[in-house]
């Protein structure tokens, strides 16, 4: 048990903390590539600016942990508990957050290229201004999550739950929302060229002033959706249900 222990600036390459009790411990600026924190308890721990490339936090309990500006490329956080954790400005390309529980987590400005959040529970999480190119959110629960101004071309939100999510001014060119549940989602001024929204539930969603040439809304359920002022050149609404929609 090492609660409140201070490892700041330590060299911890390949160190093993699996199953350890590290509540409120400090790992500020540690160098810990490939370290193993699987199933560790690191709630409220401080890992700001830590080097954690390839580290494992699989099934760790890390609620309110602080990973601000940490290096987390290729890190594994699958199944971890990350509610209210902070990854603000973290650099985590190709990191695996699949099936993580991360409600209200903060990931503003983080670099998450090709990261996976498949089947993660991330309601009310804040990804504002994050870099999410090719990121995977398939099947994730993202109700009321914020994606304001994210850069997320080709991101995969297929079958995700993004009801009431905020995606205003997001770059979502070529992104997939196939069969997503996105009722009341806010895509105002988003870039959605070539995006795939086939079969999505978009009731009362807003695409006001969105730029979505060649987007595919076929078979989408979009009653009362708002698309005023949107650019929809060559877009497809074949077999969509769009009663009371406003174009």
TrEMBL record:
It holds the Pfam family Pentapeptide. Keywords: Repeat. SUPFAM superfamilies: Pentapeptide repeat-like. The keyword Disulfide bond does not apply. InterPro entries: 5peptide_repeat. It comes from the Eukaryota. PANTHER family: THYLAKOID LUMENAL 17.4 KDA PROTEIN, CHLOROPLASTIC. This is Pentapeptide repeat-containing protein. It comes from Phaeocystis antarctica.
């Amino acid at each position: 048990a090492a609660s409140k222990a201070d490892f700041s600036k330590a060299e911890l390459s390949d160190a093993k903390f699996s199953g350890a009790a590290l509540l409120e411990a400090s790992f500020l600026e540690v160098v810990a590539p490939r370290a193993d924190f699987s199933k560790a308890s690191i709630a409220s721990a401080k890992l700001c600016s830590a080097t954690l490339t390839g580290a494992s936090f699989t099934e760790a309990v890390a609620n309110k942990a602080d990973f601000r500006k940490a290096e987390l490329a290729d890190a594994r956080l699958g199944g971890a508990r990350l509610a209210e954790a902070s990854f603000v400005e973290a650099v985590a390309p190709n990191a695996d957050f699949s099936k993580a529980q991360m409600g209200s987590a903060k990931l503003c400005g983080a670099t998450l290229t090709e990261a996976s959040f498949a089947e993660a529970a991330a309601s009310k999480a804040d990804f504002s201004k994050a870099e999410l190119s090719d990121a995977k959110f398939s099947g994730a629960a993202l109700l009321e999550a914020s994606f304001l101004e994210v850069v997320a071309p080709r991101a995969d939100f297929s079958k995700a739950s993004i009801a009431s999510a905020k995606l205003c001014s997001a770059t979502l060119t070529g992104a997939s929302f196939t069969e997503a549940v996105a009722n009341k989602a806010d895509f105002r001024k988003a870039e959605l060229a070539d995006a795939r929204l086939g079969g999505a539930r978009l009731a009362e969603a807003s695409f006001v002033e969105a730029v979505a040439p060649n987007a595919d809304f076929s078979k989408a359920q979009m009653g009362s959706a708002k698309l005023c002022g949107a650019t929809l050149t060559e877009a497809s609404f074949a077999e969509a249900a769009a009663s009371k929609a406003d174009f």
